[in-house]
Design brief:
The chain contains two helices and four strands. With 175 residues, it is an alpha+beta fold. The radius of gyration is 26 Å and the shape is rod-shaped.
Amino acid sequence: MGLGQTMLSAGVLVLLTVLTMSANRMLLESSQTSFESEAVSTAADLANILLAEIGRPEKQFDASVTYSYYQSSGEFTIASSFGPNASESFALPDTSTPFKSIVRYSDVDDYHNYQRIANGPTINGFLLSVKVFYVTSINPDATSSSRTYSKKVEVTVTHSLYLPNGIKIYGVFRY
């Protein structure tokens, strides 16, 4: 084999290596994009499931609601007191439900600063975080410093690998 044939063989081998690496990189990028799309879809589903849990019929708008009369908004929980009370804490082991908040939390604002880790069908390890705010009835995007008849729930879902910036889903609950 002459020098020309050796050079030609080496050139073909380099070209084949470059093409193989390019094909592998394209497959990896395609898989990454596919997983990111799956993560966004799963995150939205998990956020909506949590919002549906918060809005279940047995959950009250506020801990002070008695439903025996129409209450003024001044009787509702002060925003700085949002979160579970002592009887709704998770101190005791509870294996009756996948998430203790389902049975332990009685009203919307109990979920303020709540976090849970949830798994999807193909991707595990989503972190769901909840914030609850009073909002104005006219504009649910405007938070209110006073108690109102509307609460906005913000669910943020992140994943360390696929959703580092997270997605946010909102729900508004009214008295």
